[in-house]
Design a protein that fits this description.
Helix content is 30%, strand content 27%. The protein contains 12 helices and 16 strands.
């Protein structure tokens, strides 16, 4: 989104206009006699004199771009907020896609997304299962640091809405900024849309409640647009049909992986598997021996079965994250509060290491890779 300043030769008047993206096309907004006037099918042509805006009838006007300035009348009258969604490549929340929607005068005036190459183009399988973005798709993409040059224009000093921001999107964005040593002080605290009506409700469930299609869930651009639509519904005093919300939620009782195998819906671990037993466990070449391990998310087998295997290896299986936690086995859709706690403790310097189900199986079968072996044993 850019602000341009236009000098009208005949009227001897300076105008400020807003140019935004909508469906990858430029749209121009300016003040008219009856309020804000919208022009679509705009093309931008950079010249040495300024930016020439070409519109539908072949006419053109020369505008001067005002860099880094959002004039007060636009901020008050037009710019409402930007909604954001991120998809992550790894369980430690390295971003692989960012989507945004721009809301001006209660209208979604533009949406855009960027594929991001995560560090070393590394992906964890449980993240791929969520969004189906793979290393092959981001091999030629910009890194977060490179893409931020453009993305920052939309987010700095702007109200930002995200669904489950407090447990995911805001944390992931700030973590990636920190990873690349980018100052985040100009990023405002996010507006979280997950609990607008006093009920923590998933994005796709709310979409179903408003009778919107949900087929593109976990595409960052689509999620950002739906987040914007949901927040606008809330601001206008509307509520979803809660029966439809519940019906859609119950239809997700069985979650399927992208490979077609059903993931097991797990009950909370309890009982004897939480008692540490070193009597039959060998400490040699055993990274779990006398180590505190937490299991979160859904797996191809029951969490209790995983806990039993860990117990046989001498692990101290816990149900909550603490400063003493050594490893966290992370499956599909891990507990948000656990992931937040892990990140908080890591920032404080606690060495909590996260493993996937595939990592765990490789360790059990003595087939861990050199990178995994180094990750498990590093001091």
């Amino acid at each position: 989104m850019k602000i341009y300043r236009y000098y009208h030769n005949e009227q001897r008047t300076i105008y400020d206009v807003l140019v935004a993206l909508r469906d990858d096309k430029f749209v121009l907004f300016c003040h008219g006699i009856d309020g804000i006037v919208e022009y679509d099918n705009i093309k931008l042509d950079k010249t040495k004199y300024g930016t020439r805006l070409l519109y539908g009838n072949g006419s053109s006007i020369l505008w001067k771009e005002v860099h880094g300035v959002i004039y007060s009348k636009w901020k008050e009258i037009v710019l409402d907020f930007v909604s954001l969604d991120v998809e992550t490549a790894t369980t430690d929340q390295m971003i692989c896609q960012i989507g945004i929607s721009i809301v001006a005068d209660k209208i979604i005036v533009g949406s855009k997304s960027w594929l991001i190459q995560p560090p070393s183009n590394k992906y964890d399988w449980q993240c791929v299962k969520v969004h189906n973005i793979t290393a092959e798709k981001t091999i030629d993409a910009l890194t977060f640091c490179q893409a931020w040059v453009e993305i920052a224009d939309y987010l700095i000093d702007t109200p930002i809405a995200a669904h489950n921001a407090a447990n995911f999107d805001e944390i992931a964005l700030r973590k990636n900024l920190a990873f690349y040593h980018i100052d985040d002080s100009d990023i405002k605290p996010f507006i979280d849309t997950i609990n607008l009506w006093g009920k923590r409700t998933a994005l796709d469930d709310l979409c179903a409640g408003f009778e919107w299609p949900v087929g593109e869930h976990h595409d960052a651009k689509w999620d950002a647009e739906m987040c914007a639509k949901i927040y606008l519904q809330y601001l206008d005093g509307h509520e979803p049909d809660w029966e439809l919300v519940e019906k859609h939620h119950m239809s997700k009782a069985t979650t399927f992986s992208s490979y077609g195998s059903a993931l097991i819906k797990n009950k909370r671990i309890g009982g004897d598997v939480l008692i540490k037993d070193l009597s039959n466990a060998a400490p040699d070449n055993n990274p779990f021996y006398d180590r505190k391990v937490v299991i979160t998310g859904e797996f191809d087998i029951e969490r209790k079965e995983i806990a039993q295997k860990l117990q046989q290896l001498g692990a101290d299986v816990n149900t909550s994250i603490s400063k003493k936690t050594n490893y966290v086995l992370v499956g599909f859709a891990p507990g948000p509060s656990k992931m937040v706690k892990i990140e908080q403790l890591r920032v404080q310097g606690y060495d909590i290491r996260m493993l996937s189900e595939d990592d765990f199986n490789r360790i059990l079968n003595g087939m861990e890779t050199e990178d995994l072996r180094e990750y498990m044993t590093k001091k």
